[in-house]
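Journal club side-thread
Mid-discussion, someone asked how the predicted structure for our own chain would compare to the paper's figures. Pasting it here so we can look after the session.
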Amino acid sequence: MKNLISILNIEFLIKRDSFRNWRMILFISALALAMISSGHSADKKIFLIASLNSKIKALKSQFIENKTDLMNLKKETNVVKKLSINGIRPSSNPPIKIIVQSK
């Protein structure tokens, strides 16, 4: 009971040899502040990673969409449609292969 009353009256901080207790309290406080700041910086990095992952997913889907559009534009039927507007149509004769022989 006497120890409890002395702790509640904070006698361990005002006694003659209390310097050792103050050093320990300051050390523990510094460690607590370091842990809190470390936790906050870890949380910031986690949120940054999450936002970057969502951006990556959006860019991947945009890439796939653009790739499919390009594949559709490269199809022969689409090319013929685009060129028929200008009056260009596919040849009815197949191309002739030219062979050059060197002497």
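Post-session note: Residues 2-84 form one domain.
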